[in-house]
Amino acid sequence: MIKCKNWSNVNKSTISCFLCPRNCTIKNGDSGFCHVRNNVLGEMSLLSYNKASSIAVDPIEKKPLYHFLPGSTTYSIGAIGCNLACKFCQNHHISHSKSKHDLGYTVDANSIVTSAKKENCKSIAFTYNEPIISLEFIEEIAEIAKSEQIKTVAITAGYISEQARSDFFTKMDATNIDLKSFNNNFYKKFCGIELHYILDTIKYVRNLNNIWLELTTLLIEGENDSAKEISDMSKWIVDNIGTSVPIHFSAFHPAYKINYIERTSLQTLERAREIALNSGIKYVYTGNVINAIGSTTFCSKCNSTLIERSFLKTTPINKILKSTCPVCHEVCAGIFE
Prior knowledge:
Layout: E1 7-9, E2 14-17, E3 25-27, E4 37-40, E5 43-46, E6 51-52, E7 54-59, E8 73-78, H1 92-95, E9 105-106, H2 109-118, E10 123-126, H3 135-147, E11 151-156, H4 165-169, E12 174-178, H5 184-191, H6 195-206, E13 212-219, H7 227-241, E14 247-251, H8 266-278, E15 284-287, H9 292-295, E16 297-298, E17 305-310, E18 313-316
Parallel strand pairs: 8-10, 10-11, 11-12, 12-13, 13-14, 14-15
Antiparallel strand pairs: 1-2, 2-3, 4-5, 6-9, 7-8, 16-17, 17-18
Helix pairs in contact: 2-3, 7-8
């Protein structure tokens, strides 16, 4: 049994988990809210250790990460479970699985890195479900990947305790954090948590060295897409993490318990993009739709086209040289080859 972190004994048979702000109290034989951190005879056990529900080779743009090794592929791996309760989860069959007998198939850290190398992937992405809850397994993979010069990427909701943040994010080379809304009532109603924890995580990651950050907001019409909310969110981003962190506004489509709201229109995404750009954010994209302008990386100074994207495939128009625009030499934030 792997030795888990971020927990303590309450008594001989009960433990307390403080990996995330839920601070679950777990009796012997039970699991926490995430369904994978389990109490076995008074010790924390990780049910998702050496388990995978999904593995695929994806374009890095699918995560989405547009300013981190664009045009490369990433070895994507997911497990089961989540510490949120999102009613619109598009991967609910794995994120909300409660069966201890449906953990996926057995893998190990060495084989994952070996497979990533064989597929010529420049990174390994922890995705599909919430990776934070499988912290110890991901740490093991990340350590081996680093020794093989393979980057690690986390696609996460960012719901993690203050004391556990360094354990997770300092092992990553890049992350995309879901900023699902800028309204605390939305987070409580649709996700079962509070907004301020996510904002704290975003600020923490932004202040780390050697990790690239991007954000994604899934826009649901009538719930989190108002001009005021997008404006307030954009202002917070500029004031707290700067103008160079890319944000992706993605289209919602009916899923899980939210099947009564229509798919997000392109017009809604374009309006959000315009608000964010006018607020000073330099790199704003639209996702889950076909939209040439919303998929293109432009120089923030001279507006030259640097990278075009079509169906997640990238075409460098003006090659970014040492992270600068070749036309006006303005820095283009990101990690490029």
